[in-house]
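INFO batch 0412 | record 1 of 1 | parsing
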Amino acid sequence: MIKVKVDRCGYCGACVGVCPVGAIELAETRLLISEACVDCGLCLAACPVGALQAEGYAETDAVPLRRRYDVVVVGAGPGGSVAAREAARLGLSVLLLEKRQEVGSPVRCAEGIAHELLAPFIEPDPRWISAEVSKAQIEVVGDGTTVARQAEGGKGYVLERRVFDRVLAEEAAQAGAQVMVKTAATGLLLEDGVVRGVVARGPAGTMEIECAVVIGADGVESQVGPWAGLDTTLPLRDVMACAQYLLAGIEIDPARCYYYVGQGVAPGGYAWVFPKGEGKANVGLGVQADLAADSALNYLTRFIESQPNLAQGSPVTLMVGGVPVAAPLPRLVASGLMLVGDAARQVDPLTGGGIANAMLAGRLAAEVAAQAIAAGDTSAEALAPYEECWMASRGRKMARNYRLKERFGPDERTSPDFWRVFTVAIGAI
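INFO prediction complete | emitting tokens
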């Protein structure tokens, strides 16, 4: 029977169309082959990447990787791509690994960011900006009442993350980094507790890649930190379970972001409506995982049904994910390793925003890595300035916002005091 080499499969479905017995099914990002397979071999010829194999299957060549780099970055989100770009610009040899076959997909983000936080890293470009926003409206919903507060004057964007992330990865490549998609880190090379590289699996097979510093930017599901002995486990109360639709055919102000706070709307969190051009918006919410009596998706469905202007729309994309809204990690580094972005829990605990934080952390990590490599010392002590720089800048604010999150319990988040705190915080999304 034909088997699937999952590390190589591109989920294109070409094999499904040629199978004469209907034995192959494409289930989104999983290719399933049933017992009905008759080993005719037609699918082998149709597969463009050699992902199907029969008895005696021979591996095909893939893009070769060097066996050693100065820096290996795991994860090509904004934090990872900025880290790779900045490290390459500083003259380091860099490998950027992305486990998915397309950088920027799937999107797991509301896609909002303030202009002043974005501009230091990349010039705003209409190619990846869906909407420019200058107004916000916060509605506090509770006990059958709704109170709205409006603000104007800021400047921000709702991004098209699929394009934005890809452009950052392209900039890393143009700076000299080697980018590999559909290549996952499956472990670390350790020597006496010191990180010396990664084990990677992709189209070229499994290989060991040595480096001086690994930068883990592998998201909320990060394993790079735990592999190095860093405890990144999230308490359930510090996880926001999120669901979001891209709705089309709705009527909203295309320059205004909307926020809805209330236990009935999103326990422990909030709902949002971020415009993405005329008649379109990201409509989502996050609920505190230990408080929610239902799934985030069901809360979202009820929220949309309660808003006549949203209920008329049609969902064209569904996005789901988890967001860490935790206290700062006690350590962001180990010998030979640094964590950035969601992997380092560098997300605003009040808003869940993390794009700008990840990019700043990526830049700081690259700068410290270059200094440590030049000095010939990549111990935890030599990499500690990254932690210090982070806490002296954005990290201090994140720690304060976590304290505020803890101060205002879920039942207190409809109070005027929390309104003021939240209004200031969303200005930096």
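INFO post-check: DSSP finds eleven helices and 20 strands in the chain.
INFO record closed
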